[in-house]
């Protein structure tokens, strides 16, 4: 039974700032990663969960990982 949302999943640009917390451990993200939703994860938090559960979904928005794809967050400095 799939309990994730049936709406079309679209990717959102995650934002990293001084207040950003990992969506899994609620700490500052160590090696920030994302799964194409707007939430940020520590690399080890997201990688461990995806390895254990191939249908892992974001605990905040239910966006489901596709094919185990996780992405390193591109950090840009703006003036």
Structure overview:
With 79 residues, this protein is low in regular secondary structure. The protein contains one helix and three strands, in the order E-E-H-E. It has a three-stranded antiparallel beta sheet with strand order 2-1-3, with helices on one face. The relative contact order is 0.24. Mean pLDDT is 84; it is low at 1-9.
Sheet of most strands: 3 strands, antiparallel
How many helices does DSSP assign? 1
Total strands: 3
Sheet/helix structural class: little secondary structure
Indicate the proportion of strand residues: 5-15%
Q: What does the radius of gyration come to?
A: 12 Å
Model regions low in confidence, pLDDT < 50 over at least 5 residues: 1-9
Query: Which percent range fits the helix content?
Result: 10-25%
| Average pLDDT figure | 84
From N to C, what is the helix and strand string? EEHE
Strand ordering within the main sheet: 2-1-3
Topology at a glance:
Elements: E1 32-34, E2 41-42, H1 43-52, E3 71-72
Tags for this model:
3-stranded antiparallel β-sheet, disordered N terminus, 79 residues, little secondary structure, 13% helix
Short description:
This protein is low in regular secondary structure. The chain is 13% helix and 9% strand. The protein has one helix and three strands; from the N terminus they run ββαβ.
